[in-house]
Design a protein that fits this description.
This protein has 16 helices and 15 strands. With about 450 residues, the protein is of the alpha/beta class. Strands 4-10-9-8-7-5-6 form a seven-stranded mixed β-sheet, with helices on both faces. The structure holds pyridoxal-5'-phosphate. The site of pyridoxal-5'-phosphate has 15 residues, from helix 5.
């Protein structure tokens, strides 16, 4: 394997911050006091002035192998020199097949075909389109409804926003898709507060799907999409038994079940996919983020054999699915993906996450009793810490915590409204877990 070539961090603060419109960011507040990152290595980010911050969020839930790992850097460098781009419409390159096989081998049961794209949002829209087209090719074209869940996050494509259940992501964008309905959120603070792992209460909420079937009729419903553990709305683990129940109801009515594993895939919950942790096999799994450890954009959908086979009918010269992206299975992403999956295996990072789950959860629950802490949830290597909102605005305390972390405590994490969300790279050590929660404790006290 070629050695990765490293260059020192040389970035300076740009003179003009105005032209870049930052996504999901309060732009004016950011530009008044920018939080700039110029370099990274393993568990740390480095600012332009050379300050080291511990990464408590694996970037954006994605750098599961840690930052700038040599084998991944070297694989990307070598691939860029060998094959920069090859179309996957009517042509292909070898690493696309190799990575598809590797991804499929990590998925349970007969989830054995992989469609590649470039992000979680594209993965979700791809899965929803496959669901609709699947029913149509089988002569059940009346199945056009898609079911999501309140508080669900499925990216920012029109399909993903429509099945998503976060109102602020929806309300600016008109009518979205028609024919979408939502299951209730599985979160109930009164019944579940300070649960470690999957809460005991709430499996019955899956039965709401039966209610939607009664309302719409099964013959109109194509698919249900849920995150096994909802990350972006603040770390909401599934109640015990909930996903099994959803699977059973989908089976009863011929509805496809899609697990959106953009966050839960690749070790976040201690397994390749959450489907394995929960012993529930969906019909499709969406993935992104961790597949390349965030190093090159990539996403995809793993589908069951029966779903793929349903399309492989009719004359052989005809395209079976009119869908794809210029950069589906981009060579750099495939090279990064293969190197990343090798690294996960070589270092046993999924098992490592599983072993660290208890000390992680214990450290998270240690914050109970600090000012304004309303609930703490911990599952796999994730934690959500709900803080009470300030009287003068939802999200203010969360943003203050994030800024204090960045500027004064050398730690980076996500703030989702007033929830602090933590999800470190899976290479985190027990002492770094202590360090992380120590910093978070100080910050929570400081924003009281
Ligand atoms: C469950 C889930 N689906 C989809 C997405 C969207 O992924 P992307 O931002 O890569 O489009 C995310 C992003 O966090 C996610 O958590």
């Amino acid at each position: 394997m070629a050695q990765a070539q490293r260059t020192p961090v040389t970035a300076t603060v740009p003179n003009d911050l105005e032209p870049f419109w930052l996504p999901f960011t309060a732009n004016r507040a950011f530009k008044r006091r920018p939080r700039l990152i110029a370099g990274a290595k393993d568990m740390h980010y480095i600012t332009p002035e050379g300050r080291k911050l511990i990464d408590g969020s694996a970037g954006l839930w994605c750098t599961n192998a840690g930052h700038n790992r040599d084998p991944i850097v070297a694989a990307i460098q070598a691939q860029a020199a060998e094959l920069d781009f090859a179309p996957t419409f009517q042509f292909a390159h070898p690493k696309a097949f190799e990575l598809a096989a590797r991804v499929a081998s990590l998925a349970p049961g007969d989830l054995d075909h992989v469609f590649f794209c470039n992000s979680g949002s594209e993965a979700v829209d791809t899965a929803l389109k496959i669901a609709l087209a699947f029913h149509k090719v089988r002569g059940e074209g009346s199945r056009v409804r898609l079911i999501g869940r309140e508080r669900g996050y499925h990216g920012v494509g029109f399909g993903g926003v429509a099945v998503g259940g976060i109102v602020s992501n929806r309300k600016q964008f008109g009518t979205l898709l028609v024919g979408v309905d939502h299951l209730p959120s599985t979160y109930n603070r009164e019944k579940q507060a300070f649960s470690i792992g999957e809460p005991e209460w709430g499996a019955h909420l899956a039965d709401a799907l039966d209610g939607l079937v009664t309302l719409h009729d099964a013959s109109t419903i194509a698919a249900v999409i849920v995150e096994p553990m909802s990350g972006s709305s603040g770390v909401l683990p599934p109640p015990k038994g909930y996903l099994e129940r959803l699977r059973a109801i989908c089976d009863k009515h011929g509805i496809l079940l899609i697990f959106d594993e953009v966050i839960t895939g690749y070790g976040r919950l201690g397994y390749a996919f959450a489907a394995e942790r929960y012993g529930v096999q969906p019909d499709m799994i969406t993935f992104a983020k961790g597949v390349t450890s965030g190093s090159v954009p990539m996403g995809g959908v793993v589908v069951r054999k029966g779903v793929y086979d349903a399309f492989m009918q009719g004359p052989e010269h005809v395209i079976e699915l009119f869908h794809g992206y210029t950069y589906s299975a981009h060579p750099l992403a495939c090279a990064a993906g293969l190197a990343t999956l090798d690294l996960y295996r070589a270092e046993g990072l999924f098992e490592r996450a599983r072993k660290l789950e208890k000390p992680w959860a214990d450290a998270a629950m240690g914050l109970k009793g600090l000012p304004n802490v309303l609930d703490i949830r911990a599952v796999g290597l994730t934690a959500g810490i709900d803080l009470a909102s300030k009287p003068d605005g939802v999200g203010k305390r969360g943003l203050e915590a994030l800024e204090l972390g960045f500027f004064e405590h050398d730690v980076m994490f996500r703030a989702v409204g007033d929830t602090i969300a933590l999800s470190p790279p899976l290479i985190v050590t027990e002492s770094q877990i202590g360090e992380l929660f120590g910093k978070v404790a100080k910050i929570i006290k400081a924003v009281a």
